[in-house]
Amino acid sequence: MSSRKKFRLSASRVTLLYVLIFAAGISSILVASYYLTARVLDREVDAVIRGEVESLVDDYRRGGMLQLIDTLNRRADNWGRTGAVYLLADADGNRIAGNIGRWPNRLSSNGDWVEFEIDASEHGGVVAHPVRAHLFHLQDGVRLLVGTDILERKRLASRMRSAMLWGAGLCVGLATLVSIGYSRGVRRRVSEIAATCENIMRGDLSHRLRIEKASDEFDALSMTVNHMLDRIQQQTEVLRTTFDSAAHDLRAPLYRARVRIEEGLQHEDLPPAARSTMKATLSELERVQRTLGTLLQIAQAEGHGSELAMETLDFTSLARELVDLYQPEASTRGLTIAFSGSDSAQLRGNQQLLAQALVNLLENALKYVPSGCRVDVSVKSNKDSVVLEVADNGPGIPPEDRQRVLQPFVRLERDRPKSGSGLGLSLIAAVMRLHRATIELLDNNPGLRVRCTFPAN
Amino acid sequence: MRLLLIEDDLQAAEYLIKSLREHHHEVTHSADGVDGLEKATSQRFDVIIADRQLPRLDGLSIIAKLREKGDRTPVLILSALGTVDDRVHGLKAGGDDYLTKPFAFAELLARIEALSRRASLAAQEVTRLKYSDLELDLLARRATREGRTIDLTAKEFQLLEYFMRRPEQVITRTMLLEGVWNLHFDPQTNIIDVHMSRLRNCVDKGFSKPLIHTVRGAGYVLKDEQP
Asked: At a CB cut-off of 8 Å and minimum separation 6, what does A104 contact?
């Protein structure tokens, strides 16, 4: 579950990153081309103005002020058609010649370059025309202003700006949509694959990943996984039938052997030595039967999980009841068992198998924890998990053996003299796997702490 | 008691028939499912013992066919499939009891006795149970003997109620685990005996005669005289 959540996060992160990079790319291209274009236009305007100023200054140098005024008067007629602006003014700003009335008052300057606005009546209204001009100082404070109307250029720039903004917005929006769609698609496929795999892990090997016929990478992956599952299912099926029939074929003769010994024991004239041998054989048979039963139980929990009846149950009351069941026997052995638990811990599971796992944990404590020690059993219900802990202050299990003892038939060297099949913990582990719970063997300093964590209902 | 044993393992059947007859039961045997069903419907039996896996018709189908016809004869299923879920499934399918092979004969005997009397008391809706001088008030959850109230925990009361509903019947430890603690598997440790000795301390100690007795090799019985 958590890995799927992690994936969802990583998919959105990739999407977000993609959109951000894309947006940054698009914006830098558009901004760069906007400024380049604007600069080219500006330079063109400035070059025209500079040319004009040069030719006027030429006139002035050749023919003096009169020649200049004459040229200006001739050129000023063109205002409105070419958008050229001329003004020759004295030190007080009064017009000597040119096509605008007086020296502009709101004038922003940058060295010899100035910008200002002049009002012109157009289509029955007054429109402010921005003008860019070059200032040239002649003698005695007389100044020459040569400029051009840049309204059209400004309009063009603003149109270009909005077109670029729209374009960038559309591109980024589209990219966002596409990448959200893509990441959703990926997420859906991955979730689907994860869900199917979880079903399979719970023991139902008949599930297969869906092939979408898109022949994409996911289909290729799914097909490979499906092939793998086919193989695993085949092998499991062979193992299972072998195991089932072996178990069944062992049970029948065991049953007959037991029946025969019981029958024999009914003879009253049996020599005592024969009777005790037969009784010992009977209890050996019982041991074999028990081991076989546990093996079958493990096999069922591991392999036939989906066939088991699952119900919603209160794990706290189940654990409390079993602790109560073992309490008297524990106290005759000098052990203290204490139970503490949340009011209720709802869990979905197979009641009998969970009970069997709890019983195995309690019997392990009875068997391996020495007299005078204590065993604490607790069930805690959290928001997203139910945690069972069985902690004792007995001899514990060395860290290097803790994983190993969960395997079938593995027993600690020091426990050899005690009876047992080495299957108790493996059955618990199998039941935990069936319930998607984790089992941890921890150090209780001193002693053993077994922690089983179930996903909440 | 008239019993029908449907079992295809002839060796085992032979031993069971012999032992059951020694305990004064009348046994009819059938070696396959179809024949067994025919016998079950044509004659009256107190209890039917059927193997789960049988040639031609399996044990659970026999139960289904019987119940379809309205036949309520108690059926005890014997099975070599021993996992917990098989047991629960067998009971859900309409079997009245379920025993996993191999089992002790005493266990089978106790269960047959219990099944034949099940209809009488075990499932009845009663508010009071009385046996000898012992009385249980099921509503107030109170036990009295010779007019004195006996202090019992909730579980001890439940345990005693199980016996009171089956007076004079042999109750095995497995039956108690199933009936009182709802555990359909056998724990390795004998945990029942301690509970029984606590119960006997409460019920029998300080009274004129014991009511709960140990039956060697089988279990316990509630009876007002030595069995």
From this structure: A116, A117, A118, A131
Question: What average pLDDT values come out for chain B (227 residues) when binned by 10 residues?
Answer: 90 89 92 91 91 86 88 86 69 79 86 79 74 90 90 92 90 92 85 93 89 91 82
Bond prior to A446 in cis (omega within 30° of 0):
yes
Residues A67 and A108 in one domain: yes
Q: What angle in degrees, to the nearest 10, is found between the helix axes of A2-76 and A151-201?
A: 170
pLDDT (0 to 100) of residue A277: 92
Q: Which of A244, A248, A249, A259 to mutate to test the interface with B (most CBs of B within 10 A)?
A: A259
Distance in angstroms (rounded) separating the CA atoms of residues A429 and A423: 10
User: Is A383 in the same domain as A449?
Assistant: yes
Residues facing B135 on adjacent strands: B130, B144
Confidence (pLDDT) at A391: 94
User: ipTM for the complex?
Assistant: 0.84
Which residue pairs, CB below 8 angstroms and at least 24 apart, start in B197-205? B198/A328, B198/B156, B199/B152, B199/B156, B199/B159, B199/B160, B202/B150, B202/B151, B202/B152, B202/B156, B203/B134, B203/B143, B203/B145, B203/B150, B203/B160
Q: What is the domain-level CATH number for residue A49? A: 3.30.450
CB contact under 8 A, B104 and A262: yes
Q: Hey, what domains does chain B have and what are their CATH numbers? A: 2-121 (3.40.50.2300), 125-222 (1.10.10.10)
Question: Is residue A231, in this structure, part of any structural domain at all?
Answer: yes
Angle, helix A351-368 to helix A424-434, in steps of 10 degrees: 150
Same domain flag for A289 and A359: no
Among the partner residues B83, B181, B182, nearest to A300 by beta-carbon distance: B83
Give me the domain span that covers residue A345.
Answer: 308-455
Cβ proximity of A237 and A204 under 8 Å:
no
Region of poorest pLDDT, from A78-92, A432-446, B29-43: A78-92
Answer yes or no: is pLDDT of A1 > 50: no
Residue ranges of B 4-43 with Cβ closer than 8 A to chain A = 9, 11-12, 15-16, 18-19
